[in-house]
Design brief:
- There is one protein chain.
- With 256 residues, the protein is an alpha/beta fold.
- The protein has helices at 2-22, 75-78, 81-86, 141-154, 182-192, 200-211, 213-217, 229-244; strands at 25-30, 62-65, 94-98, 125-128, 135-138, 158-162, 170-171, 174-175, 196-198.
- The strands form three sheets. The protein has a five-stranded parallel sheet with strand order 2-1-3-6-9, with helices on both faces. The chain has a two-stranded antiparallel sheet with strand order 4-5. Strands 7-8 form a two-stranded antiparallel ribbon.
- A hairpin with a 6-residue loop joins strand 4 and strand 5 (135-138).
Length: 256
């Protein structure tokens, strides 16, 4: 009887190990609104990616938040961060991406040099980067997003494009949208490449309006861009709800 019990235990452990070893990974990439600082809220500010592991059954799927503050669609690539994900990305994995907040900055300066060309076209600008001291060809926001999407698909993984979350900026009782700029361009890249799209810019803005300006102000203790624990957790819940609505997306089966 004891031997049978030990065999059963060994079998269960082996199955558990196999499941953990073969479970897919969700890679999240983005800026400080997705992962602020170390991702642990040390400064009272968070990003919605820090709460996504709470939305999924982590026995069945692994969640890795690779977003980092201050990065644009361009600098996440040029710093080699995307290459590190590509080296690990496997068939059946997922990449959730959100960029745009930092893409409107200067293309070439001595402080950040992180801007991309506006739009989704193939135009480029050749520069000698004043910050990195390297020669660089700068592309459009859409070019970089297209690269992330297409290379994810080439690996047999699933890309999910998110439009950038809105800032706490109001006009005439409405939250300011990016529906004619980065929000639109993110949608166009997703549609062009038959990728899943979550319009976080619109959905979160609508939720803020439902809550009211006074309540939303509490989510932004330091500026109009970076939310606190409650604000970031709310966005993570919204991302989860939006994934649940994506047609034919297998990732929804891995939600709690």
């Amino acid at each position: 009887m004891k031997n049978k019990f030990l065999v059963l235990c060994a079998f269960v452990l082996a199955c558990s190990f196999t499941m953990l070893k073969t479970r897919p990974t969700i890679y999240i990439i983005g800026d400080s609104t997705v992962r602020n600082g170390s991702g642990a809220g040390s400064d009272g500010l968070w990003g919605w990616g820090s709460f996504m592991n709470q939305q999924f059954d982590t026995v069945k799927v692994k969640v890795e938040n690779h977003a980092i503050g201050g990065r644009s669609s361009r600098t996440f690539l040029t710093e080699g961060r995307w290459d590190k994900i590509m080296a690990k990305l496997n068939k059946g994995d997922y990449v959730i991406m959100q960029f745009g907040h930092n893409d409107g900055g200067a293309i070439n300066d001595t402080s950040r040099a992180r801007g991309s060309i506006k739009g989704i076209g193939n135009e480029s600008e050749e520069i000698d980067n004043l910050l990195t001291k390297k020669h660089e060809i700068v592309h459009s926001y859409g070019w970089y997003m297209r690269k992330y999407v297409q290379e994810t698909q080439e690996k047999g993984a699933t890309p999910i494009v998110c439009s950038l979350v809105p800032r706490n900026v109001w006009k005439n009782g409405k939250v300011e949208r990016a529906g004619q700029s980065y929000g639109l361009w993110a949608k166009q890249i997703a549609e062009e490449n038959k990728a899943y799209f979550i319009d976080l810019n619109e959905v979160v803005a609508a939720k803020y309006e439902e809550l009211g300006k006074e309540n939303v102000e509490k989510f932004f203790p330091k500026d109009h861009t970076h939310p606190n624990y409650e604000g970031s957790k709310l966005t993570a819940q919204i991302v989860s709800e939006q994934i649940q609505q994506l047609k034919k997306c297998k990732l929804k089966k891995l939600l709690k």
